[in-house]
Amino acid sequence: MNNRKFLCLDCGEQWEVPPCTAGGKHGYEIPCPKCGSMKKSRVEADGSQTACGGGHYHGHGHGCCGGHK
């Protein structure tokens, strides 16, 4: 599974984190490493962006998580 890519909606920083695993952090729990903002979108492999935030994206394989293995 590929790393997850995020884009900070406040400062424009783009970063990657390892795939979500059992016990790991979901995307909505990960702040921007540059400014600390929690406002972000997930950048998909095709360059499109997916909304990221809150428990309504908690479903594994959707939103920011990327699925547990």
Structural write-up:
- With 69 residues, this protein is mainly beta.
- It is 0% helix and 25% strand.
- It has one domain (4-57).
- Strand 1 and strand 2 (14-17) form a beta hairpin.
- It is globular and about 30 Å long.
Percent range of helical residues: under 10%
Q: What's the rounded overall pLDDT mean?
A: 81
Distance between the ends: 9 Å
Strand runs, count: 4
Elements, N to C (H/E): EEEE
Strand order of the largest sheet: 2-1-3-4
Indicate the overall shape. Answer: globular
What fraction of residues sit in β-strands?
15-25%
- Continuous helix count: 0
Q: What is the rounded Rg? A: 11 Å
The residue ranges in which pLDDT falls below 50 over 5 or more consecutive positions are: 55-62
Class from helix and strand fractions: mainly beta
Sheet with the most strands? 4 strands, antiparallel
Domain count, please report it: 1
Chain-wise SSE layout:
Blueprint: E1 4-8, E2 14-17, E3 40-43, E4 49-52
Antiparallel strand pairs: 1-2, 1-3, 3-4
State the gist of this model:
With 69 residues, the chain is mainly beta. It has strands at 4-8, 14-17, 40-43, 49-52.
